[in-house]
């Protein structure tokens, strides 16, 4: 008998944890994914977005799919709004790989695709306001990775002197965020990134 697995895509809003249960004492007041939708038992998020990040999050009841999507075979694309007018040198450094801290050790990120976006991407307003133009310019970049260390994009942009103000995952493989709104869940027939 085959098991019928279920798959979902979600726009994870700012301020939510990418999990269903609280693991820590300080997290009792945190917002969890189960508050957004009545997911079936055994649903897991595929990868994570930290509490301050938002955008595309895939969920499944199939652990094999989860492992495959989390592998380095699948690209993950993020739009990052960074503090300051980013330079071509900083973009080149990000693309080549930079050194970040991870678990108390230094880690060299793998080469990745980084582009400056010439226009502000069309995204829903974020729940928490981002500082405005009176505090100086910001830039939007696209970062496409095949790895996913904890808070990697944020650490990378800080390493080149342009801290991330807003981070939105817009693509996993060939699955796009599209026009999904924060908190919206769509059930997928399958996940084939």
Q: What's the short story on this structure?
A:
Helix content is 13%, strand content 31%. With 193 residues, it is α+β, with helices and mostly antiparallel strands.
Set down the secondary structure blueprint:
Elements: E1 7-12, E2 44-46, E3 54-60, H1 63-70, E4 76-83, H2 88-96, E5 99-102, E6 105-108, E7 113-116, E8 138-145, H3 152-159, E9 164-172, E10 175-176, E11 185-188
Parallel strand pairs: 3-9
Antiparallel strand pairs: 1-3, 1-11, 2-3, 4-8, 4-9, 5-6, 7-8, 9-10
Description:
It is a single chain. With 193 residues, the protein is α+β, with helices and mostly antiparallel strands. The protein is built from 3 helices and 11 strands. The strands form 2 sheets. Strands 1, 2, 3, 4, 7, 8, 9, 10 and 11 form a 9-stranded mixed β-sheet that branches. Strands 5-6 form a two-stranded antiparallel sheet. A hairpin with a 7-residue loop joins strand 2 (44-46) and strand 3 (54-60). The longest helix has 9 residues, at 88-96. The chain is globular, with a radius of gyration of 17 Å. The two termini are 26 Å apart. 29% of the residues are buried. The model has no long low-confidence stretch (mean pLDDT 90).
Please describe the structure with a list of short key phrases separated by commas or semicolons.
31% strand; alpha+beta; 193 residues; single chain; 3 helices; nine-stranded mixed sheet
């Amino acid at each position: 008998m085959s098991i019928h697995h279920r798959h979902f895509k979600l726009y994870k809003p700012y301020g939510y944890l990418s999990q269903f249960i609280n693991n820590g004492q300080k997290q009792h007041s945190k917002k969890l994914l189960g508050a957004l939708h009545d997911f079936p038992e055994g649903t897991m998020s595929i990868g994570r977005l930290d509490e301050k990040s938002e955008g595309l999050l895939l969920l499944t009841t199939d652990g094999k799919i989860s492992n495959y999507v989390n592998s380095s075979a699948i690209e993950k694309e993020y739009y990052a709004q960074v503090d300051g007018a980013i330079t071509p040198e900083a973009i080149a450094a990000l693309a080549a790989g930079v050194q970040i801290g991870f678990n108390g050790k230094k880690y060299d990120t793998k080469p990745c695709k980084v582009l400056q976006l010439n226009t502000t991407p069309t995204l829903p307003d974020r729940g928490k306001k981002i500082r405005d133009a009176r505090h100086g310019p910001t830039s939007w970049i696209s970062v496409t990775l095949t790895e996913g260390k904890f808070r990697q994009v944020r650490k990378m942009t800080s390493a080149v002197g342009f801290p991330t103000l807003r981070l939105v995952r817009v693509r996993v493989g060939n699955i796009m965020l599209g026009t999904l709104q924060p908190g919206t869940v769509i059930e997928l027939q399958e996940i084939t990134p």
